[in-house]
Amino acid sequence: MTEGVQEGRVEPGLRYEVFHTDCLARDVVDHVTSRWGVWVLISLRNNSLRFYELRESIQGISEKMLAQTLRTLVQDGLLWREVEPTTPPQVTYGLTEFGRDVGEPLSELFDRITRRLSAGDAG
Asked: What is the DSSP-derived secondary structure letter of residue 2?
């Protein structure tokens, strides 16, 4: 069973006002750039992962914060969530097309930073 993708369709030509507090795009940007949102999107860039695999890959995140971040990113349409009806249930997460589009520049930024730091060229 797959849940998620609650993307709203936007009328062509409709412009978002990102500096307005009620802007939907602003909310998604806040969720993506939150302390843990970036790491979830980067962790899922190559393949889908189960909840415990995400928890292990993102050091320092609590189960509560991971669950909250995943729930928010699923609601934003960036992630899909699949629950296998086993005991206990196995939950897998992956990037939607929207999530891949948003996560790609984040991954590129992370890769660029780590390359520069590895080369000792941080200045």
From this structure: E
H/E segment holding residue 55: helix 51-57
CB-CB contact of 104 with 46 (8 Å)? no
Rounded to the nearest 5 percent, the helix, strand and coil shares of the chain are 45, 15, 40
**Contact predicate 41/104, CB 8 Å:** no
β-sheet with 49-50: strand ranges across:
2-4, 79-84, 90-95, 49-50
Per-10-residue mean pLDDT for the chain, 123 residues long? 47 63 83 93 96 96 97 97 93 97 93 90 62
- Write out the two tokens for 37: 């949102």
DSSP assigned state of 42: H
